[in-house]
Design brief:
The protein is an all-alpha fold and 313 residues long. The protein has a single domain, classed as MetI-like fold, CATH 1.10.3720.10. A two-stranded antiparallel ribbon has the order 1-2. Helix 6 crosses helix 8, helix 7 packs parallel to helix 11 and helix 11 crosses helix 12. The termini are close together. The model has no long low-confidence stretch (mean pLDDT 80).
Length: 313
Amino acid sequence: MSTFLTRRLATIVPTLLFVSVMIFGLQQLLPGDPAVVLAGEERDPSVVAYLHARLHLDDPLPVRYLYWLGGVLRGDLGESLRMQKPVTALIAEKLPVTLELAAIAIAIALAIGIPAGIISAIAKGTWWDYAANAVALWGLSTPNFWLGIMLILLFSVSLGWLPASGYVSPFEDLRGNLAAMIMPAFVLGNAIAAVLMRHTRSAMLQVLSSDYVRTARAKGLSERVVVLKHALRNALTPIITLGALELGTLLSGAVLTEQVFTIPGFGKLIVDAVFNRDYAVVQGVVLFTATAYITLNLLADIAYFLVNPRLRG
């Protein structure tokens, strides 16, 4: 395991370096001059010249990249000229919101997807199987923004049970926080649950037909023990991978969902930064989420060894 982790860690640095080049390079393809956008409607030439000098916009592209990379290596992701805040401070401000939304969404997805996948595999060919697959197909084909709007119309406009939008800190009002987060979390968790259900079903069907499961049944073990202890544990490997990838996707910001429900997370932050040509914010947030995505994949690899003893040999 140590050798495997050493090899994986050795690939992280060049991967992040490549990601940083892509982030910086693609950012430069955005049309328009960020200095002109930030200078406001009057566009005073002296202000535009000052912004060009401060952002190194007149320097060659490689030089500008090295300026930015040097700051990143020192832990300085730059400063948002639009909001007059360091990017690290903005990340620290928005990260708890996105983490909470992602955690609730993943919890909803796991609570729905894995049990549905297990039941569908055990009851293959029955109406339970067909019903679970129909629900999964509905979850995969339903656009998040449409489902979000429908939930707002039902639970906020018609019934008045939940707030239509906004965010309340759990430290200020825990009940209000959960009321504001449950609908966007369900919208995100619904789509992930559908994917988890299909993968769980596929993995369980493969494991249930294996020799060691037939041996466990021949020993007289109850079906519950066979399914939960022997089959499910060995079927979790692809599910762990999928869960890590989906969590990484959520941490990068659920743009449409956050826009629909006005959740001040990473998604809304990066959309506003793109429209405002706030280069430092875009680059800093994308680099942070890419690092989190790679880290989650590494943690998923470590979990393989903890869940599946066969991988430890």
